């Protein structure tokens, strides 16, 4: 699988490959289909760029400058690991032929460093601090495509969608928040054809992982950041933000902390009981006893009148929901570790579980990205998702549909559903993910 992220296989001639890809690029712009020697991930990126109406002769726009750029650098988490980037990639920058750059999660360049001569050359395509290099703004490029896919990638010469960038070759890797798994940005090296090697891709990937490890080791400023892990777990893990081990919560306590984290202004006893027990006839004493036991675990973090958490507790659900809302599906899919507290039958938890699953699932079906869909259907919670398998089969070229086709036939047989005659197949009657949220 590593090979698909590499621009050139061993022994390939860079000049010959660049010419072949350039011809394929021009053919694509003329409306022809994309085939060999263009990598599938590049063809997909070209299509995304075309759908975003990126002009092939454009240069990147500049979103941040002067005081705004300086403030964003100071506030951005990757500023804390910039010395590490310089230490690990400084040798490449100092050779006078390459650039080191770091962008934020929206593809805006925070730093572009290297020899003055090569920086001046890069300025011709607006490869400067403050410029925006996400795919919808600058087409196929290493930092933008790494952010779009959530994976380290090389982009070689004419694989770039925009012509002003095609003299360059780049290798980039996304950097994630080690606690929430949210994409913080990407680290990138830019230069000539020599970068189209396994070494450069492995180097930026290792640098990104080292940055994540350093971020994890840094003590947060101010109050500890608390995180509640509830995805794919029967009982939650509550991280205090300090060095001690996380607190493991039982099912009922997990439900209560999740509900209170979702309602930072607090819940009355009656409302909390309704979210936990629904219409069941449960004595108020039962809830008070649960909260008393939970207070013994949380201490001053749990307050009453109304019941609330005295400090912000972020959940891994927040990461998924925010990424879906921002259209960052690779991050959302990476952060989604499974259904939220799957054993819980508390109405408030069930409602949140369904809304989160359905939001992510619907976004994946709408995007129709074969790699993301393939990741989804290979999980325990997606392996029986008939609609996702149908979307995957439809997103793949005909010669690659054998596996999803066989799985579709097996699922339709199991559900007693005939193959669709039109473009849309019936949904399975007992589906978990498509169900509407509980009111």
Explained architecture:
- It is a single chain.
- The protein is of the alpha+beta class.
- It has 3 domains: 2-217, Beta-Lactamase, CATH 3.30.450.40; 226-315, Arc Repressor Mutant, subunit A; 317-415.
- It has helices at 14-29, 40-51, 66-75, 82-94, 116-123, 135-138, 142-149, 198-217, 251-262, 269-277, 284-298, 316-325, 329-335, 347-367, 370-377, 386-395, 402-415; strands at residues 99-104, 109-114, 153-156, 169-176, 183-191, 226-229, 237-239, 247-248, 302-303, 308-309, 313-315.
- The strands form 3 sheets. It has a 5-stranded antiparallel beta sheet, sandwiched between helices. It has a 4-stranded mixed beta sheet with strand order 8-7-6-11. It has a two-stranded antiparallel sheet with strand order 9-10.
- α12 (316-325) runs parallel beside α14 (347-367), α15 runs antiparallel to α16 and α16 packs antiparallel against α17 (402-415).
- It is globular and about 75 Å long.
Low-pLDDT windows of residues: 423-439
**Share in helix:** 40-55%
Structural class: alpha+beta
Distance between the termini: 44 Å
Q: What's the CATH first level of the largest domain?
A: Alpha Beta
The chain-level mean pLDDT equals 87
Helix and strand pattern: HHHHEEHHHEEEHEEEHHHEEEHHHHHH
The biggest sheet amounts to: 5 strands, antiparallel
Number of helices: 17
And the CATH topology of the largest domain?
Beta-Lactamase
**Total beta strand runs:** 11
| Radius of gyration based on Cα positions | 25 Å
Can you tell me the CATH architecture of the largest domain?
2-Layer Sandwich
Strand content: 5-15%
Mass-distribution shape: globular
Count of spatially separate domains: 3
Largest sheet, spatial ordering of strands: 2-1-5-4-3
The CATH H-level superfamily of the largest domain is GAF domain
């Amino acid at each position: 699988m590593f090979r698909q992220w590499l621009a050139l296989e061993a022994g390939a001639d860079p000049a010959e490959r660049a010419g072949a890809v350039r011809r394929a690029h021009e053919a694509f712009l003329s409306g022809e289909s994309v085939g060999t020697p263009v990598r599938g991930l590049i063809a997909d990126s070209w299509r995304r760029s075309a759908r975003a109406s990126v002009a092939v002769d454009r240069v990147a726009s500049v979103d941040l400058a002067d005081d705004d750029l300086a403030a964003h650098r100071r506030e951005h988490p990757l500023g804390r690991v910039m010395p590490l980037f310089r230490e690990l990639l400084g040798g490449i920058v100092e050779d006078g032929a390459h650039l080191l750059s770091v962008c934020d999660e929206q593809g805006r360049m925070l730093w572009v460093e290297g020899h003055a001569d090569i920086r001046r050359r890069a300025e011709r395509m607006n490869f400067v601090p403050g410029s925006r290099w996400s795919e919808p703004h600058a087409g196929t490029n290493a930092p933008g495509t790494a952010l779009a896919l959530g994976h380290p990638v090389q982009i070689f010469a004419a694989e770039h969608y925009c012509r002003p960038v095609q003299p360059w070759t780049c290798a980039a890797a996304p950097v994630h928040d080690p606690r929430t798994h949210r994409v913080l940005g990407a680290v990138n090296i830019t230069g000539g054809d020599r970068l189209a090697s396994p070494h450069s891709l492995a180097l930026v990937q290792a640098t990104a992982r080292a940055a994540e490890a350093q971020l994890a080791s840094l003590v947060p400023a101010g109050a500890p950041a608390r995180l509640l892990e509830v995805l794919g777990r029967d009982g939650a893990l509550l991280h205090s933000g300090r060095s001690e081990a996380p607190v493991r919560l039982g099912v009922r306590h997990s439900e209560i902390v999740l509900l209170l984290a979702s309602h930072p202004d607090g819940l009355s006893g009656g409302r909390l009981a309704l979210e936990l027990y629904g219409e069941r006839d449960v004595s108020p004493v039962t809830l008070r006893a649960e909260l008393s036991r939970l207070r013994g675990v949380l201490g001053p973090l749990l307050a009453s009148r109304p019941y609330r958490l005295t400090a912000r507790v972020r959940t891994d659900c927040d990461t998924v929901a925010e990424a879906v809302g921002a259209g960052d599906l690779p991050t959302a899919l990476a952060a989604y570790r499974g259904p939220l507290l799957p054993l819980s039958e508390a109405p408030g938890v069930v409602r949140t579980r369904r809304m989160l699953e359905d939001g992510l699932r619907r976004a994946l079906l709408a995007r129709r990205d074969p790699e993301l869909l393939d990741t989804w259907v290979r999980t325990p919670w997606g392996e029986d998702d008939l609609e996702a398998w149908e979307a995957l089969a439809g997103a793949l070229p005909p010669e690659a549909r054998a596996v999803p086709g066989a799985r579709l036939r097996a699922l339709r047989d199991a559900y007693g559903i005939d193959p669709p005659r039109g473009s849309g197949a019936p949904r399975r009657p007992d589906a978990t993910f498509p169900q509407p949220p509980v009111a």
